[in-house]
Task: structure prediction
Amino acid sequence: MSSRMLHQAALDQLRSGFTGTLLAPGDPSYEETRHVFNAMIDRSPAMIALPGNEAEVAKAIAYGRREDLEIAVRGGGHSVAGNSASDGLVIDLRHMNTAAVDPEARTVRVGGGATMADLDGATQPYGLATTGGRVSSTGVGGFVLGGGSGWLERAFGLACDNLLAAEMVTADGDLVRATGHTHGELFWALHGGGGNFGVVTSLTLRLHPLPALTAALLLWPPQAGPEVTRAYRDFMAAAPDQVGGGLIYLTAPDEPFVPTELVGKLVCMVLITYTGPEAQAREVMAPMLGLGHAGEMIAQLPYAQLQSMLDDPPGYRNYWSAEHLDAFPDEAVDEFCARAADMIVPSPSQHVLFPEGGAVARDADLYPLPWRHAPWTVHPFGLWDDPADDARGKQWARALRSDLKPWASGSVYLNFIGQEGADRVVAGFGQDNYRRLAEVKAHYDPGNVFHHNHNIRPAT
Result:
C-alpha cells in the first residue's frame, strides 16, 4: 500500500464518528480558522481538528501521532510565542467552550476552549468572579495553566491558585482527572507548567463574591511620567489587597475622557481597580487623584466590562517580554519611563508596570512560579501592523529588559513572553521545580508529543 493510501486510511479512520469539524487546506473557513492572535505567526496546518468532546480529542491525538505530525493545541489562540499554531496538526478546542457555574459551591467548570468572555459572562449573573486575563478574548485554558496573572490577582490570587480540578487527555489517549487528591503531582504541575502534559479539556475554578468593582483610568502627558510613576510605586506599597491595576504608557485613544490634545499621542496612564464600591475606591485612591491628572474615567462597573475595556485588537504583529523586579528605586523608575519614548506611537503597544504582592505573594512557593515573589513586573507589550517596524519593536522590548536588569529577580512569567530560549523556560519555573516538572512530564508524556509550548523536556 502506498504512503498516500496509508495517509488516506488514517484520515478516514479519524473522520469515522468524528462529530466535530476537520479542516484541511482549501476547505471553507480553513484560512479564517488557522490564524492566531499574533500576526507574526503564519502557519498552515496540514489538518485542523475541532473536536466536540474528550473522545474526539483522543482520536485527533492518535491521528497526529500515527502521521508523525507536530501537534499544537489551541484554546484562545493568544499565545504570543505561537504555541497554538503548527504546520502539522492543530487540535482546536474552541467548540469546547462551555462554562457551568455552581453558585452554591462557588465553582465554575470551564471547557478547554473557553475564553474569558465565556467565563465572565457565565459567572457575572451570580455576582461571582475569579482572576482572569486582562482581555476578554484570552483563552482560559492556556492562561490558567501558565499561572494566570490578572486584574484581580492581588485580591483573589493567581488564576492557578483557584484551580480545583483539571481533566486532561494524555498522549496515549487516556482521560485523567487531576485534583489535590488524585494525580497530585500532575495537579501541582498544571499550576504553571502549561500545556506540556496533555490536552486539558476542562478546568474547575474557585469563584469569589464580587458584588461591586470600581475602575479608574487616570491620564497624564508623558513628561509627568517619572513623578507619577514614583507616586504610584509608593501608593501601591501601602495599598490594600483589594487594589489592583497597573501603570501604562500607551497611545491615548479617542474617548470622551481623553483631552483632545492628547488623542493619538503617547500618555502615561494609571489603571486602578478596586474590588468594592466607588465611594470606598475614591477614598483608597485619593493619593493618586491629587496629582493633577489631565483626564479621568472613574466608574463602578461589571467585571466583564472591565475585562473588555482594554481588549487588544486582532491582526497586529505582536512581540512581548517581561522582567520581574525585586526593587523599584528612583533610578529604575527613570530608566522605565525614559524607554517609553522608543515605543511605536501611534499603535496599540503598551509599556506596562504591574504591581504584584497581596495574594500573589502568599504561598509563593506552593507552585512552580518563582516570579510571584517579585513585587513588580515590567511588561513591554508590543503590537504594530507594519513588518518594517519589527526590528524597532523588538529592540524596544529587549532594551527595556536590559535597562531594568540591575533590579531583576531573574524569573519570568512565561505567558508574557515569546520564544526566548531554553534558559528562560527554566527561569520560568526555577531549577528545582523544573527538575520536578520534568519527572511529571516523563510520566504523562515521555515521548514529548506535546512540545509545541514553553517546553519541559521529559526526565530520562
About this structure: Residues 390-404 form the longest helix (15 residues). The two ends are 36 Å apart (CA to CA). The mean pLDDT is 96. The CA atoms of residues 229 and 358 lie 19 Å apart.
